[in-house]
Amino acid sequence: MTAKTAQYSLNFHGCGSGGQLAVGSSAATLELNSQPQLLIDCGPGTVHSFQQRYQQLPEAIFISHCHLDHITDLEILTVRAKLSQSSPIKLFVPLSIISTLHQRLATYPELGSMAEGQHNFWQSFQLIPVTDEFYWRGCHYRLYPTRHHTPNSSFALHLPGRFFYSGDTRPIPEILHHKITGQERIFHDCGVEPNPSHTGLADLAEYQPEIRQRLVLYHYADQLAAEALKAAGYQVAEPDCAVLL
Ligand SMILES: [Zn+2]
Prior knowledge:
By secondary structure, the protein is α/β, with parallel strands linked by helices. It contains six helices and 14 strands. Helix content is 20%, strand content 27%.
């Protein structure tokens, strides 16, 4: 009898930057043998993409930060979870962004009288506040505050030996040069041009060559930008294409 080997992959529901949704809002699911384990972020269109691919709602989500292109579909999800009477969805949220998340999604006036019947935003979720690390389904994840506006408002997710997901950020050599084991695929925010909130192609020179060769770039403007990133010699994540880990 042969045991099935564990094959992890990261499937991108979208790879786009905010406001430029031609390639979908950036969100990805860690899969084990093609089964969803953990969804990272939940912006516009993510729930639809998730249901199309897996025929189910997510069971666990990590939220990297509270810009709307990473969280808005949680409003749709709380209603869908209520209607499907599923178990509360585990929502791993960095401690320092919980009040912002609550203010942005859970304070709509008279939320309890929505068309689907009395329902509080959080009722469909099991909130799990996280700080430096957390466990889920046998995996030990780490998180690190990154460089995306106010300190401690945006976080990278790291599964040592498997993958590093930067979330929205400027370059973070102080993290990547010290925390990577050498085995991970590194999924990194990168558009063609740098800007004050995000990484651009020229910024990648801040990384050592052994980091650069592990990069898989996402959070770009459109297909044209993806082609430019590829032409510069980088691997690029694309919507609905699972990257093996
Ligand atoms: Zn952002």
